[in-house]
Design a protein that fits this description.
- By secondary structure, the protein is α/β, with parallel strands linked by helices.
- The protein is 43% helix and 19% strand.
- It contains six helices and six strands; from the N terminus they run βαβαβαβααβαβ.
- The protein has helices at 15-27, 40-49, 68-74, 90-95, 97-117, 137-152; strands at 6-10, 32-37, 58-62, 80-83, 122-127, 160-165.
- Strands 3-2-1-4-5-6 form a six-stranded parallel beta sheet, with helices on both faces.
- α6 (137-152) links the parallel β5 and β6.
- α5 packs parallel to α6.
- The longest helix is centred in the middle third of the chain and has 21 residues, at 97-117.
- The two termini are 21 Å apart.
Length: 170
């Protein structure tokens, strides 16, 4: 399924992204695996584990989901997107709720727009169990992220959108 395919992981330097990349490199032979993250240090550290030499499918792309233009650039000829970029810490999102809105909601909407523009085949958003009956800013913004993805299923696009909930257990 993922053999000879191009996969982009937003927030790919996080714990889920690293485990996901390790798994797909072990089980499949992807053409490209693009780590899309705004954290230069984590990308550098990840390159030590998953080098991007001439024989490797690994690519590292500095960018933020808040930047639609950069997302579109990163998604050139991408088949699959795994969307894990988010503000996930409850205390931080309670103290900075609009930052959570900009990343978790606006960033997710940007991702949807970029994937449609680039004809990406399939997009999976990783959400959280906190999106069920949310009581905090993180849960509320992730619940809206799910609604953004679900609403796109009713449009006539070639891209398939879905969400999965990740309860901090891989």
């Amino acid at each position: 399924m993922l053999n000879n395919k191009s996969i982009l992981i937003t927030g790919g330097t996080g714990s889920f992204g690293k485990k996901f990349i390790k798994t797909i490199l072990k089980r499949y032979n992807p053409e490209k695996v693009i780590v899309y993250s705004r954290d230069e240090l984590k990308q550098y550290e990840m390159q030590q584990q998953f080098p991007n030499d001439g024989n490797s499918p690994m690519r590292y792309f500095i960018g933020d989901v808040r930047d639609l233009g950069r997302l579109k650039m990163a998604m050139k000829e991408v088949d699959y997107v795994i969307h894990t970029a988010a503000l996930k810490q409850v205390p931080a999102t309670e103290y900075n709720p609009f930052e959570a809105v900009k990343t978790n909601i606006i960033g997710s909407h940007n991702l949807v727009r970029a994937t449609i523009a680039r004809n990406v085949k399939h997009v999976i958003a990783v959400s959280t169990d906190k999106a069920v009956k949310p009581v905090n800013a993180m849960g509320m913004t992730k619940a809206l992220q799910e609604k953004i993805f679900r609403s796109e299923q009713y449009e006539e696009y070639n891209t398939i959108f879905c969400s999965v909930r990740y309860g901090n257990v891989l």
